């Protein structure tokens, strides 16, 4: 591809939704969790999936990651259906994503450096020396320069989250997915993680999709959001969370977003 066609592609992709969830119904067997979800995540968004406990936020993330197939509907990346793509195309699409789960999910028998090197070993042809360079760079981006040889059991919870983030950005992903990134962190570490997510998103140019209950994160860093309602089993809010807090026609959404800035997952939410 020439630079000109590259830039033409980039220019057109800047206009389009990076991710589109279209008429999505999610179910476990016969049990429908959410139906008729329709929303778009624009390129460069920090998009938050919100809602009360058990409404289906993690289930939606798993659908977006292709770990669960939709009961109905489709999920498109840059206009291409993930749901209908063949296995090779799905694999290629997956390689452009970075994921961090609530637990961090680092491999405990491997050092932080080895953990971060895994995707590079799997998906690139880099030499050992090149991988070592990328690993130290990615660890330094999350403030863990020099911690290559430490094991997960030897670092704090906040450092583990940052190491997991470092692994997620190893391949410069187009989309970064987070499930409760700051779960279990104190408020200061949690804010630092938020700042880091924004910095990394800007330096890598990723789109971010995250599940979070943290109002501080939602208001500080989210650019767009969707609210899933467990009772009606569909989305009842879609937009900038500050706008939804002040103007949503749905009382449940306004209540969720005005719980108090220090609310945590344990607080009662609708
Ligand atoms: N593998 C599964 N099989 C059957 N039901 C499931 C499965 N995983 C989740 N569920 C059910 O689907 C519903 C949505 O679960 P999910 O974990 O997506 O909600 P959530 O909004 O992420 O919840 P929380 O905020 O508490 O983490 C819940 O009722 C849950 O019990």
Automatic annotation (TrEMBL):
Transmembrane segments: none
Keyword terms of this UniProt record: ATP-binding, Nucleotide-binding, Transport
Residue ranges of every copy of the ABC transporter domain listed in the record: 19-255
Keyword Kinase: no
GO MF terms, alphabetically ordered: ATP binding; ATP hydrolysis activity
Taxonomy of the source species: Bacteria, Pseudomonadati, Pseudomonadota, Gammaproteobacteria, Cellvibrionales
UniProt name for this protein: ATP-binding cassette domain-containing protein
InterPro entries xrefs: AAA+_ATPase (IPR003593), ABC_transporter-like_ATP-bd (IPR003439), ABC_transporter-like_CS (IPR017871), P-loop_NTPase (IPR027417)
Keyword NAD: no
SUPFAM superfamilies: P-loop containing nucleoside triphosphate hydrolases
């Amino acid at each position: 591809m020439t630079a000109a066609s590259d830039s033409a592609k980039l220019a057109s992709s800047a206009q389009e939704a990076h991710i589109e969830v279209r008429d999505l119904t999610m179910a476990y067997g016969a049990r429908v969790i959410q139906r008729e979800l329709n929303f778009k995540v624009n390129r460069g968004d920090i998009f938050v999936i919100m809602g009360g406990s058990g409404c289906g936020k993690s289930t939606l993330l798993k659908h977006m990651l292709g770990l669960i197939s939709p009961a109905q509907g489709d999920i498109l990346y840059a206009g291409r259906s993930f749901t209908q793509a063949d296995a090779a195309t799905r694999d290629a699409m997956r390689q452009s994503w970075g994921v961090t789960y609530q637990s961090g999910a680092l491999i405990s028998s491997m050092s932080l450096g080895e953990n971060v090197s895994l995707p590079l070993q799997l998906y690139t042809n880099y030499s050992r020396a090149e991988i070592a360079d990328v690993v130290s760079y990615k660890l330094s981006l999350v403030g863990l320069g020099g911690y290559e040889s430490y094991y997960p059991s030897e670092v704090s919870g906040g450092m583990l989250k940052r190491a997991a983030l470092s692994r997620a950005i190893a391949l410069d992903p187009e989309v970064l997915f987070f499930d409760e990134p700051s779960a279990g962190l104190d408020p200061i570490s949690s804010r630092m993680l938020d700042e880091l997510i924004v910095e990394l998103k800007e330096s890598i140019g990723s789109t971010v999709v995250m599940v979070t209950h943290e109002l501080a994160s939602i208001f500080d860093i989210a650019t767009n959001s969707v609210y899933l309602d467990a009772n009606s089993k569909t989305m009842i809010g879609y937009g900038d969370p500050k706008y939804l807090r002040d103007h949503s026609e749905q009382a449940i959404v306004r209540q969720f977003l005005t719980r108090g800035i220090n609310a945590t997952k344990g607080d009662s939410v609708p």
